[in-house]
Structure formats: structure tokens, C-alpha cells
Records
---
Amino acid sequence: MTALMFDKVLIQQLAAELHASEKTRVQVEHFSKRYPGMTVEDGYAISRAWVQMKIAEGRVARGRKIGLTSRAMQMSSQIDEPDYGTLLDDMFFEPGAIAFQRFIAPRVEVELAFVLKKKLEGPHITVDDVMDATDHVQPAIEIIDARIEQFDRHSKAMRKVQDTISDNAANAGIVLGGRKVSPREVDLPWVGAILRQNGVVEETGLAAGVQGHPAIGVAWLAMKLAPWGECLEAGEVVLAGSFTRPVPAKIGDQFDADYGPLGRFEFQFI
């Protein structure tokens, strides 16, 4: 890891801004614009501080999400690896009605979730290790959001990856549905999905879009956590990364996620 540029006071201050933004639904300006020396590690430190604030209020960590897994997204963000955030208990939604007021500017992504039965820990983790540690894989929708505005209100410049990382890798919600399958029961790169919004096909994709195989990102994440003294625990849910572009959602929108043999489920923002 590279050194942090921010001190603990500033990290706590910026985490508190994100915490307030989520509660008030008023976005904050780019941290990277206010602090041009901000590093990726500063972003992760802010994200961790924010998660700790939530845990202090009674939330429980239930897993992780991996973002920026496709080459196109990495190139647009000018990075060469994914990012990650934390899933908390109040981010999990059942198919059906979801309160739009929970979010600021929600967008919907098609993913696969890995639910672990064994711990993944250490600097050397393989895809086979991930497959062996996984109890089941399940269709999932990630709801991403932006407590830090996506585009600067003045210059219209897009936020930088440091901003996205500090914003818990843009995570806000997860909807699990469809069939639970053993990771070796299906050819995971060939798992496909069709996402309909109000009856219109908005996105289609294959899980191979996630670095060739969705388990690759899970292995990467376990290794990235090691220098922080963290790991992926048994029972945790890991969102492996989107294999479609994010689809903006508004109140009243009905979504239909069809994973073919792995099942189909619907949800609506009300």
C-alpha cells in the first residue's frame, strides 16, 4: 500500500460528511477536487471510517462488493484494477418493493453473489480456492448510489476513483433472487442475464465480462484485504462485479432480472 496523505482527523471528517449525505440525501462535492493529493489508500481509509460509524450505530457487516471489474470501466476511471466496499445488513433487500427514498441517485447493476462457507485469507488466493470456499452462487442485483456527486456541480468533471472508493465503492443495496447453485454446478463465465426496465430490455451480459471469470475478482479481493489484516469470512456475501452497465432508476421503475436457468426475479422502486 502507498502511504496515506490524510491524517486521522481529516479521514474522520470526510467520513462524517458521507454519513450525513446518506441521511440527508444531499450530495457532497468531490473530495479529490478539494484535496488534489488524495490517494486510493486515503479513499479506503475514509470508507473504513464510515463503515465503522455505521457499525457503531448498530449495523452489521455481511460481506463485500467488488466494483470497476470490466476493462471499459477501469479505462474510464484510469485505473488498472477493481475497487471494493462493504455490505451492511440494512443494504439487503428482497425482490418486490424497495423504497426509493433510501437512495439519492440509484443505478442498477447485474451481478453474481458468492456466499462463502470457508474463510479466504492471505496474500495468495486462487480461483480454485474461491470455488472450494464457496457454498453457493446466486443471482444478484447491486443498487449503486452516489453520496459524492458523480459529476462536479461546477465543472461537470467526472469524479475520480478515489472519490468512488471513499463512497464505499458506490454501494448502497443488494437484491438476491433466483436459484442458489454450487459454484461448479454451472459454467460461471457463461452465466447470462437480461435486465428489463419497465418492460424494455436495457442490458444483457455474460459473467465472463467480470475479468473472464467472476471468481477472479473474489480471489483478488481476498488478497487485497490481507495487508489491512482483513479477510473474507465464512458466511459472508461477496458481490463479484457487474457484467452490465449501470442503469439509472427513478421512482416507480419496475425491473425484471432474468438469469435463464438460474432464475428470474422482479423489484420496483416505490
---
Amino acid sequence: MKVILGVTGSISAYRAVDILRLFQKNGHSVSVILTRSAREFIPALTFETFSPGKVFTGMFAGHQDPVLHINICGESDLLLIAPATANIIGKMANGIADDLLSTIFLAFHKTVVVAPAMNCYMLENPAVKDNLARLQARGIGIIDPEEGSLACNYEGKGRLPDPGKIYDYCLKRVTGAIDV
């Protein structure tokens, strides 16, 4: 399976490396898309070190393909966004395409899964809840965040799920073993 792993600007972005490695360990090809905010938490070099696949950081940064956002979609089976911030969830729910990841999302026509990770109050905000409901109604898989200690010193729901849980969910979605 060919996977696009979108990483957004959450403190849990470092855990995306474990997700990348788990997919690779199981024989899947992974291309990584890092948003500008994600790069504030973890540098592209970290993903490049662990990934023989491509790591992309912007619409026109470091590659020669002017229609990358289209071409990468045709060769991939899964778009996984983990962690998914309130920002990318809002863009996805409202059709906003102002960076490489959100543009890829609009062009992607196969399985899409998001794993939200954010502060518990942000997650419970009516706008975020509405956006997640809109995505789910459109057939996008949503992996519920876990409860526990959050980076902001709060306790609550908002933690990025364990990479194994994310991996298993994605495999089941791609194979049709589970629906939305």
C-alpha cells in the first residue's frame, strides 16, 4: 500500500515518526507531507532520516513537479493525517486549499483518515465538533483521540492515539473491513 502521511502543527507531531516507521516495517511505502506549523515542532530532516520515501514541505519547495498535489494522489491508496489539528480539520471541512496538504486532500479520491490531536477544550469547541461531523458524513475516517495528560498540563480527551491503533484502523479502512 502507498500512503501519504500528513503531519500538522501539534506537539504530538513527533509521534508521526513512529507511525511512519510502523507502516514501513509492514512493507508500505510512505510519502510525508509536513505543514509549515509541523516543521515548528519537528524538522523535515527527522522524517528524511527515517523515510526512503519522499518528504514534502510545501507546494513548490524542494521538488520539480508543478502538479505534485495531483500526481501524488494518483499513486497513493491512503491519505492519513496524524496528528490532525483543528486548523487542518477546518480547512478540510470547508474546502480550503491554501497549502500542499489541504490541496492534496481536495484532489485525493481514495481512503482518507484523520487522527485529531489537540487541547481538550479545542476538541470540544462546537466549530471543531461540527467540522469533524461534516468530515465523517463525507466518508472520512476519524480516529477518536485518547484521554489522558495533555501537553498543556490539562487532563482530558485530545491525545493522539497509539501508532498501532492508528495503523490497524487504517488497514481496516483501506481493506473495507470497517466503514465510517
---
Amino acid sequence: MTDRSQLIKLLATRSAKRGQFILASGKQSDFYIDARLTTMSPEGLSLIGAIGLSTLRASGWDVDAVGGLTLGADPISYAISYASSGSNKPIRAFTVRKESKAHGTKKLIEGPLGEGDHAVIIEDVITTGDSALRAIAAVRNANVSVIGVLALVDREEGGRQAIENIGVKVITLTTTAQIRAVIRE
């Protein structure tokens, strides 16, 4: 079984839920993916770090840093950064807050992200694309170039297109269709 197959199976067994749910986008669904049950587990972190890093390297993108809107993007970003630590071009991780801190430095973006960097926005599950779009806007406002979005799961409900409509390429590690197929096996 490949690492990607193992990741899809882990998402299917740990993160996929059937029932009636309201998604972060406000949409209703009978299928929910609580990606954090996978992304915050040791096995998930290990798989996601290695797969995410190899996917970014294969994309040809020149990546300095990865990150996205907290909380969904955080463990994925950290796993990729950690997986890159022994490479000749380590990738830093950052977090985009939902709103600026009211105290201290009052930052919206936390972590080692600097003006002129090339960043990839990380998303756990894309539905409408709104979370990634918010992170893209915040990072661009910090004078950082956004070269793409890497998503763990694409729900295939128009979010990818919304992101690509503003000129940002999207790469996904899996889709809800692939996760559903494992559940049916």
C-alpha cells in the first residue's frame, strides 16, 4: 500500500462521518470530514509531512514557507516543515490568525514568514475555498508571493475553482470521492 493510499484509508476510517452536518462554509452535508482526527495523530502527521513535501517538490514550486488559516492548516504545515528539516531547502511554517491579536505584537500572521517569501497556502478541507482565500489575502497583504494552495481534501464543491479563478493553482492530496470509495470497499 502506498503512503497516499494509507493516508486516504486513515482519513476514511478516522475522519469521515455520515449524518447531517453544517460545514464551516454554512452548507449542509450528509458527509463530514473532521481532518483534525487524522492531521493531529502521529500516523497522520508522518504521512502528511512526507506526502505533502514530495508533492510540493514534484510541483516545481519554489517554496519558502507553508501555512494557512488556523486551525485546520496548522498541523499540515508543521508536518511538511518538519519533514523538510533534513533537506537542502527546508520549508518554514506559519499560521494565519482569523483576526489580529489584540495584544502584544498584534500580528495576523505568526511564524517565520518574511516579505518577499514564496508561500504555499495550506488547507485541510476545501469546500467553498473561503478559508484559503482569506489566507491568500492576508499573506499577499504581508508582501509575500502566494504560489499555490496545497489541500489535504477537496470536497469537489467549487472551492478549487474559486481559488483558481483568482489565479492561484491548487494541488490536492485526495478528494471526498476517493475517501468515499475506501469506505465502500
---
Amino acid sequence: MTDPEIIHSVLKGKKDNFRILVDEHHASVFHIAMGFVHDRDEAEDLTQEVFIRAWQSLDKFRGDSSFSTWLHRIAVNACLNNARKKRGSPVISRITSLFTSESEAETQALSFSDNPEEILIKEEHSTWLQKALDTIPENQRTAIILSKYDDLPQKEIATIMNLTEGAVEALLQRAKKNLREKLSTGAKKIKLNRRK
């Protein structure tokens, strides 16, 4: 059964079929939530909240976009609302891949594993990354999370965010530039602190 067929059956009374949609889309919603909160329990709570909202609004799904796009939009809104409620807590995300290749990341992970000082430096850099992510504009952060965490194409990100593909590309470029600048400043401060 396709998503529209499942939705039709749920709306016609076969409510248990909603479980099929949950099973099919759980992982992608969870990835989005992890991109915003980086805590498994909190991401799971947010994922559950997203599916509750989807269940409550299922009769409003018009089919203008795919069900997954509609669901991702609900997920982003839930995550942004959660972040607004918790102002001051950092939004953590694993997006170091924006700045390093996979092989570099693996090499760094190996080199950090043996040296306690290197581990401390890595933790300091991670803290700066968290702070940097927390300070970039909401729409940039959303675009990066959808792109890097859920690996969505720009076309779908544009639909979710109600933007053009060009606008999404510009957001991603600005976000990368902002993060590079903030991380560069953070790295300089870490070096200065270590010299004291």
C-alpha cells in the first residue's frame, strides 16, 4: 500500500494502519529530532510528539506534497518550538562533515583516542561547535539539519521550508560560512587559553 492509500484507509476507520506510517517514517523523523537536540531520549519524545500531531491532523493532509514532506514539516516545527521553549540550551549537531572529509574525521578520531590532551582539545572544539550552531539563524540551522542529518535533497528541503531551491542553497552556504567563522574564532580562543 502507498502512503496515500494507507492514509485513506485510516481515515475510513482502519486506525491500526497508522502504525504502518509510523514504522515507515520513524527513522527519518528521529534523525531530524536528533539534529536539533542530539539526545536520544529527547529525540524519541519529539518523534512521538510529531506522530501524535500527524495523527491529530491526518484529515488535513491534502496530498499537495508527499506524506514524508508533510511529516518532515511537522517535525521541523515541533523541533523549533521545542528549541524556543528551551532558549539557552545548545542545539548540538554532528555536522563536522561540513568542514572535514570522512577520512580526515576518521584520522582525527584515531589520533584523539590515545592522547588525553588531544581528547580535551577535541571536547573544547565540540563545545565551540555547539555554541556556534546555537547562534546561527533558525532557518540556516534547519536547512543544515535537514541536509546533513536526514540527507534530504534541496528540492524537498525547499518544499518543507516553503522556499525556493535557490533560497535553500543560499541558506546552506551562509550557514557554512557563519559556522566556519565562529569555529575559527573559537579555535583561536582555545589556543589563547591554552597559552595562559
